[in-house]
Amino acid sequence: MPLKFCWTIAFLVVTLSLCFADDDHEMEEFLKREHSLSKPYQGVGSSSSSHWELMGDAMVTTEQVRLTPDMQSRQGAIWSRIPCHLKDWEVQVHFKIHGQGKKNLNGDGLAIWYTKERMQKGPVFGNKDNFTGLGVFVDTYPNEEKHIERIFPFVLAMVGNGTISYDHERDGRPTELGGCNAMVRNLKHDSFLFIRYVRRRLTVMIDIDGQHEWRDCLDLPGVRLPQGYYFGASAITGDLSDNHDIISMKLYQLTVLRSKKEEEEEEDVITIPSVDNMELIRLGQSDEGMSGIAIFFTVLFSMLACIFLIVIGLVVYSHWNENRRKRFY
Protein backbone atom coordinates (compact mmCIF):
# COMPACT_ATOMS: atom_id res chain seq x y z
CA MET A 1 0.00 0.00 0.00
CA PRO A 2 2.69 2.67 0.85
CA LEU A 3 4.45 2.01 -2.46
CA LYS A 4 1.20 2.44 -4.41
CA PHE A 5 0.39 5.56 -2.41
CA CYS A 6 3.80 7.09 -3.23
CA TRP A 7 3.40 6.26 -6.93
CA THR A 8 -0.05 7.86 -6.90
CA ILE A 9 1.30 11.08 -5.34
CA ALA A 10 4.14 11.18 -7.87
CA PHE A 11 1.72 10.73 -10.75
CA LEU A 12 -0.58 13.49 -9.48
CA VAL A 13 2.34 15.90 -9.14
CA VAL A 14 3.50 15.22 -12.71
CA THR A 15 -0.05 15.50 -14.06
CA LEU A 16 -0.73 18.81 -12.31
CA SER A 17 2.57 20.29 -13.48
CA LEU A 18 1.76 19.36 -17.07
CA CYS A 19 -1.75 20.74 -16.77
CA PHE A 20 -0.65 24.09 -15.36
CA ALA A 21 2.05 24.34 -18.02
CA ASP A 22 -0.67 24.41 -20.68
CA ASP A 23 -2.74 27.19 -19.16
CA ASP A 24 -0.79 30.00 -20.83
CA HIS A 25 -1.62 28.89 -24.37
CA GLU A 26 -4.29 30.88 -26.15
CA MET A 27 -7.00 29.17 -28.19
CA GLU A 28 -9.61 30.22 -30.69
CA GLU A 29 -12.69 28.11 -31.39
CA PHE A 30 -14.82 27.73 -34.50
CA LEU A 31 -18.14 25.89 -34.64
CA LYS A 32 -18.11 23.00 -37.12
CA ARG A 33 -21.71 22.75 -38.25
CA GLU A 34 -21.22 19.55 -40.26
CA HIS A 35 -20.21 17.77 -37.02
CA SER A 36 -22.80 19.48 -34.81
CA LEU A 37 -26.32 18.47 -33.82
CA SER A 38 -28.95 21.03 -32.81
CA LYS A 39 -32.60 22.02 -33.27
CA PRO A 40 -34.51 21.64 -35.54
CA TYR A 41 -32.36 18.55 -36.35
CA GLN A 42 -32.62 18.96 -40.12
CA GLY A 43 -29.39 17.05 -40.64
CA VAL A 44 -30.75 13.85 -39.06
CA GLY A 45 -32.08 11.13 -41.34
CA SER A 46 -31.47 7.96 -43.27
CA SER A 47 -30.57 9.58 -46.59
CA SER A 48 -26.97 9.70 -47.74
CA SER A 49 -27.06 13.50 -47.66
CA SER A 50 -27.84 13.68 -43.94
CA HIS A 51 -25.05 14.34 -41.46
CA TRP A 52 -26.43 12.22 -38.61
CA GLU A 53 -27.99 8.77 -38.52
CA LEU A 54 -30.27 7.15 -35.93
CA MET A 55 -29.98 3.59 -34.66
CA GLY A 56 -32.16 1.28 -32.57
CA ASP A 57 -34.89 2.88 -30.47
CA ALA A 58 -33.64 6.45 -30.95
CA MET A 59 -36.13 8.96 -32.33
CA VAL A 60 -36.23 12.67 -33.16
CA THR A 61 -38.79 15.08 -31.73
CA THR A 62 -39.05 18.84 -32.02
CA GLU A 63 -37.30 19.26 -28.65
CA GLN A 64 -34.65 16.53 -28.50
CA VAL A 65 -33.14 13.38 -29.88
CA ARG A 66 -34.47 10.69 -27.54
CA LEU A 67 -31.94 7.85 -27.40
CA THR A 68 -34.19 5.68 -25.23
CA PRO A 69 -37.68 6.14 -23.81
CA ASP A 70 -38.42 5.42 -20.15
CA MET A 71 -39.06 1.76 -20.93
CA GLN A 72 -37.23 -1.48 -20.17
CA SER A 73 -34.71 -3.17 -22.48
CA ARG A 74 -34.26 -0.37 -24.99
CA GLN A 75 -31.12 0.97 -26.66
CA GLY A 76 -30.58 3.71 -29.18
CA ALA A 77 -27.89 5.89 -30.67
CA ILE A 78 -27.17 8.73 -33.05
CA TRP A 79 -23.95 8.81 -35.07
CA SER A 80 -22.27 11.34 -37.31
CA ARG A 81 -21.77 10.18 -40.89
CA ILE A 82 -18.73 12.41 -41.36
CA PRO A 83 -15.36 11.46 -39.83
CA CYS A 84 -13.65 14.21 -37.83
CA HIS A 85 -10.13 15.07 -38.97
CA LEU A 86 -9.51 17.87 -36.48
CA LYS A 87 -6.34 17.77 -34.42
CA ASP A 88 -7.70 19.84 -31.53
CA TRP A 89 -11.40 19.95 -30.76
CA GLU A 90 -14.05 20.57 -28.15
CA VAL A 91 -17.57 19.18 -27.93
CA GLN A 92 -20.32 20.59 -25.73
CA VAL A 93 -23.27 18.30 -25.08
CA HIS A 94 -26.63 19.52 -23.84
CA PHE A 95 -28.43 16.48 -22.44
CA LYS A 96 -31.23 15.40 -20.12
CA ILE A 97 -31.82 12.20 -18.14
CA HIS A 98 -35.20 11.85 -16.49
CA GLY A 99 -37.83 9.29 -15.64
CA GLN A 100 -40.36 7.93 -13.18
CA GLY A 101 -37.96 5.69 -11.28
CA LYS A 102 -36.80 6.65 -7.81
CA LYS A 103 -33.15 6.89 -6.77
CA ASN A 104 -31.17 3.72 -7.65
CA LEU A 105 -34.26 2.41 -9.43
CA ASN A 106 -33.33 3.85 -12.80
CA GLY A 107 -30.80 3.12 -15.50
CA ASP A 108 -28.55 2.69 -17.16
CA GLY A 109 -27.03 5.88 -18.57
CA LEU A 110 -25.70 7.42 -21.76
CA ALA A 111 -22.36 7.76 -23.53
CA ILE A 112 -20.64 10.24 -25.83
CA TRP A 113 -18.29 8.63 -28.34
CA TYR A 114 -15.34 9.48 -30.55
CA THR A 115 -14.55 6.12 -32.12
CA LYS A 116 -13.36 4.35 -35.22
CA GLU A 117 -16.52 2.25 -35.34
CA ARG A 118 -20.05 3.57 -35.71
CA MET A 119 -23.62 2.24 -35.80
CA GLN A 120 -22.87 -1.00 -33.93
CA LYS A 121 -25.17 -2.08 -31.12
CA GLY A 122 -23.70 -3.52 -27.95
CA PRO A 123 -23.72 -3.70 -24.15
CA VAL A 124 -21.62 -0.59 -23.43
CA PHE A 125 -24.35 2.01 -23.02
CA GLY A 126 -25.85 0.83 -26.30
CA ASN A 127 -22.54 0.64 -28.23
CA LYS A 128 -20.24 -2.27 -29.03
CA ASP A 129 -17.69 -3.55 -26.54
CA ASN A 130 -13.96 -3.54 -27.38
CA PHE A 131 -14.41 -0.19 -29.11
CA THR A 132 -11.55 1.83 -30.62
CA GLY A 133 -11.38 5.41 -29.41
CA LEU A 134 -12.84 7.52 -26.61
CA GLY A 135 -15.97 6.97 -24.56
CA VAL A 136 -17.30 9.37 -21.92
CA PHE A 137 -20.04 7.75 -19.87
CA VAL A 138 -22.78 9.18 -17.68
CA ASP A 139 -23.45 6.08 -15.58
CA THR A 140 -26.65 6.35 -13.56
CA TYR A 141 -26.82 2.92 -11.94
CA PRO A 142 -24.24 1.18 -9.68
CA ASN A 143 -23.80 -2.45 -10.77
CA GLU A 144 -21.05 -3.27 -8.29
CA GLU A 145 -22.56 -4.20 -4.94
CA LYS A 146 -20.01 -2.53 -2.68
CA HIS A 147 -19.32 1.12 -3.48
CA ILE A 148 -17.12 3.07 -1.12
CA GLU A 149 -17.03 6.83 -1.58
CA ARG A 150 -18.59 6.73 -5.05
CA ILE A 151 -21.93 8.42 -5.55
CA PHE A 152 -24.05 7.74 -8.63
CA PRO A 153 -24.73 9.08 -11.22
CA PHE A 154 -21.02 9.09 -12.09
CA VAL A 155 -19.22 10.52 -15.14
CA LEU A 156 -16.11 8.64 -16.31
CA ALA A 157 -13.93 8.35 -19.40
CA MET A 158 -12.25 5.39 -21.09
CA VAL A 159 -9.92 4.98 -24.07
CA GLY A 160 -10.11 1.67 -25.96
CA ASN A 161 -7.78 0.21 -28.59
CA GLY A 162 -10.13 -2.46 -29.94
CA THR A 163 -9.05 -5.15 -27.49
CA ILE A 164 -9.99 -3.63 -24.11
CA SER A 165 -13.33 -4.70 -22.69
CA TYR A 166 -15.54 -2.49 -20.55
CA ASP A 167 -16.16 -4.20 -17.19
CA HIS A 168 -19.90 -3.72 -16.77
CA GLU A 169 -20.08 -5.54 -13.43
CA ARG A 170 -17.50 -3.17 -11.91
CA ASP A 171 -18.89 -0.05 -13.58
CA GLY A 172 -15.81 0.35 -15.76
CA ARG A 173 -13.41 0.92 -12.88
CA PRO A 174 -10.50 -1.21 -14.18
CA THR A 175 -10.18 0.90 -17.35
CA GLU A 176 -11.43 4.35 -16.34
CA LEU A 177 -9.18 7.39 -16.68
CA GLY A 178 -10.94 9.25 -13.90
CA GLY A 179 -14.28 10.89 -13.30
CA CYS A 180 -16.67 12.63 -10.92
CA ASN A 181 -20.11 12.25 -9.46
CA ALA A 182 -22.86 14.22 -11.19
CA MET A 183 -26.44 14.37 -9.92
CA VAL A 184 -28.01 14.77 -13.34
CA ARG A 185 -31.39 12.98 -13.05
CA ASN A 186 -34.69 14.84 -13.11
CA LEU A 187 -33.15 18.31 -13.01
CA LYS A 188 -35.38 21.33 -13.60
CA HIS A 189 -32.51 23.19 -15.29
CA ASP A 190 -30.19 22.39 -18.19
CA SER A 191 -27.30 19.95 -17.87
CA PHE A 192 -24.16 20.06 -19.99
CA LEU A 193 -21.10 17.92 -20.61
CA PHE A 194 -17.85 19.43 -21.91
CA ILE A 195 -15.14 17.33 -23.60
CA ARG A 196 -11.95 18.95 -24.87
CA TYR A 197 -9.00 17.30 -26.63
CA VAL A 198 -6.04 19.63 -27.06
CA ARG A 199 -2.36 18.85 -27.40
CA ARG A 200 -2.99 15.22 -26.40
CA ARG A 201 -4.69 16.35 -23.22
CA LEU A 202 -8.22 15.25 -22.38
CA THR A 203 -10.44 17.50 -20.26
CA VAL A 204 -13.97 16.67 -19.13
CA MET A 205 -16.17 19.14 -17.26
CA ILE A 206 -19.84 19.33 -16.30
CA ASP A 207 -22.37 22.11 -15.79
CA ILE A 208 -25.31 20.66 -13.85
CA ASP A 209 -26.02 23.19 -11.10
CA GLY A 210 -27.92 25.74 -13.18
CA GLN A 211 -25.21 28.36 -12.53
CA HIS A 212 -23.67 28.32 -16.02
CA GLU A 213 -20.32 27.37 -14.54
CA TRP A 214 -18.13 24.45 -15.56
CA ARG A 215 -16.98 22.06 -12.84
CA ASP A 216 -13.83 19.99 -13.31
CA CYS A 217 -14.33 16.26 -13.72
CA LEU A 218 -11.21 14.95 -15.47
CA ASP A 219 -8.01 16.56 -16.74
CA LEU A 220 -5.36 14.19 -18.10
CA PRO A 221 -2.36 14.70 -20.41
CA GLY A 222 -0.83 11.95 -22.50
CA VAL A 223 -4.05 10.85 -24.22
CA ARG A 224 -3.40 9.81 -27.83
CA LEU A 225 -6.42 9.79 -30.15
CA PRO A 226 -6.19 9.33 -33.94
CA GLN A 227 -7.89 11.67 -36.35
CA GLY A 228 -10.70 10.54 -38.64
CA TYR A 229 -13.00 8.97 -36.04
CA TYR A 230 -16.76 9.48 -35.64
CA PHE A 231 -18.75 11.30 -32.97
CA GLY A 232 -21.87 9.72 -31.56
CA ALA A 233 -24.13 9.31 -28.55
CA SER A 234 -25.87 6.21 -27.24
CA ALA A 235 -27.92 4.98 -24.29
CA ILE A 236 -29.35 1.75 -22.93
CA THR A 237 -31.95 0.57 -20.42
CA GLY A 238 -32.34 -2.84 -18.81
CA ASP A 239 -34.70 -3.91 -16.06
CA LEU A 240 -34.59 -0.26 -14.99
CA SER A 241 -35.11 2.67 -17.33
CA ASP A 242 -34.95 6.40 -18.00
CA ASN A 243 -35.49 8.86 -20.81
CA HIS A 244 -32.05 9.66 -22.25
CA ASP A 245 -32.21 12.82 -24.36
CA ILE A 246 -29.64 14.75 -26.40
CA ILE A 247 -30.72 18.35 -26.98
CA SER A 248 -27.54 19.37 -28.81
CA MET A 249 -23.95 18.34 -29.55
CA LYS A 250 -21.79 21.20 -30.75
CA LEU A 251 -18.27 20.54 -32.02
CA TYR A 252 -15.69 23.32 -32.11
CA GLN A 253 -12.40 23.35 -33.93
CA LEU A 254 -9.67 24.80 -31.71
CA THR A 255 -6.79 26.79 -33.11
CA VAL A 256 -3.91 26.28 -30.70
CA LEU A 257 -0.54 28.00 -30.69
CA ARG A 258 2.29 25.48 -30.43
CA SER A 259 5.98 25.92 -29.79
CA LYS A 260 8.49 24.40 -32.20
CA LYS A 261 9.29 21.73 -29.63
CA GLU A 262 5.62 20.80 -29.29
CA GLU A 263 5.23 20.56 -33.06
CA GLU A 264 8.23 18.22 -33.27
CA GLU A 265 6.87 16.05 -30.45
CA GLU A 266 3.50 15.70 -32.22
CA GLU A 267 4.86 14.92 -35.67
CA ASP A 268 4.25 11.19 -35.28
CA VAL A 269 0.88 10.11 -36.66
CA ILE A 270 -1.29 8.38 -34.05
CA THR A 271 -2.87 5.20 -35.40
CA ILE A 272 -3.91 3.38 -32.21
CA PRO A 273 -5.61 5.11 -29.23
CA SER A 274 -3.57 4.94 -26.04
CA VAL A 275 -2.89 6.69 -22.74
CA ASP A 276 0.55 7.43 -21.30
CA ASN A 277 1.27 6.22 -17.75
CA MET A 278 -1.83 4.01 -17.69
CA GLU A 279 -0.23 1.72 -15.10
CA LEU A 280 0.20 4.63 -12.68
CA ILE A 281 -3.44 5.62 -13.21
CA ARG A 282 -4.53 2.08 -12.35
CA LEU A 283 -2.35 2.06 -9.24
CA GLY A 284 -4.10 5.20 -8.04
CA GLN A 285 -7.52 3.72 -8.78
CA SER A 286 -6.75 0.51 -6.90
CA ASP A 287 -6.61 2.61 -3.74
CA GLU A 288 -9.99 4.26 -4.48
CA GLY A 289 -12.52 3.82 -1.74
CA MET A 290 -10.07 4.34 1.10
CA SER A 291 -10.75 7.52 3.02
CA GLY A 292 -8.00 9.95 3.94
CA ILE A 293 -8.07 8.69 7.52
CA ALA A 294 -7.79 5.07 6.36
CA ILE A 295 -4.81 5.91 4.15
CA PHE A 296 -3.17 7.84 7.01
CA PHE A 297 -3.47 4.99 9.48
CA THR A 298 -2.39 2.42 6.88
CA VAL A 299 0.79 4.38 6.19
CA LEU A 300 1.30 5.04 9.92
CA PHE A 301 0.98 1.38 10.88
CA SER A 302 3.26 0.38 8.02
CA MET A 303 5.92 2.79 9.28
CA LEU A 304 5.50 1.56 12.86
CA ALA A 305 5.87 -2.01 11.65
CA CYS A 306 9.11 -1.09 9.89
CA ILE A 307 10.43 0.63 13.04
CA PHE A 308 9.44 -2.42 15.14
CA LEU A 309 11.34 -4.75 12.82
CA ILE A 310 14.40 -2.50 12.96
CA VAL A 311 14.32 -2.45 16.77
CA ILE A 312 13.95 -6.25 16.92
CA GLY A 313 16.87 -6.57 14.52
CA LEU A 314 19.04 -4.32 16.67
CA VAL A 315 18.16 -6.26 19.82
CA VAL A 316 18.93 -9.58 18.18
CA TYR A 317 22.20 -8.22 16.83
CA SER A 318 23.13 -6.83 20.27
CA HIS A 319 22.53 -10.21 21.95
CA TRP A 320 24.43 -12.03 19.23
CA ASN A 321 27.37 -9.63 19.51
CA GLU A 322 27.42 -9.90 23.34
CA ASN A 323 27.46 -13.73 23.23
CA ARG A 324 30.19 -13.59 20.65
CA ARG A 325 32.34 -11.38 22.90
CA LYS A 326 31.82 -13.74 25.86
CA ARG A 327 32.97 -16.71 23.78
CA PHE A 328 35.97 -14.73 22.55
CA TYR A 329 37.13 -13.75 26.02
Task: Describe what you observe in this structure.
- With 329 residues, this protein is α+β, with helices and mostly antiparallel strands.
- It is 22% helix and 32% strand.
- The protein has helices at residues 2-21, 260-265, 278-286, 292-328; strands at 27-31, 52-56, 59-60, 65-68, 75-80, 89-98, 109-115, 132-139, 154-161, 179-181, 191-198, 201-207, 215-221, 223-224, 230-236, 243-256, 274-275.
- Strands 1, 3, 4, 6, 11, 12, 13 and 16 form an eight-stranded antiparallel beta sheet that branches.
- A hairpin with a 2-residue loop joins strand 11 (191-198) and strand 12 (201-207).
- Helix 1 crosses helix 3 (278-286).
- The longest helix is centred in the C-terminal third of the chain and has 37 residues, at 292-328.
- It is globular and about 95 Å long.
- The model is unreliable at 3-25 and 288-295 (pLDDT under 50).
- Residues 1-21 form the signal peptide.
- One of its GO terms (biological process) is endoplasmic reticulum to Golgi vesicle-mediated transport.
- It is a single-pass type I membrane protein; Single-pass membrane protein.
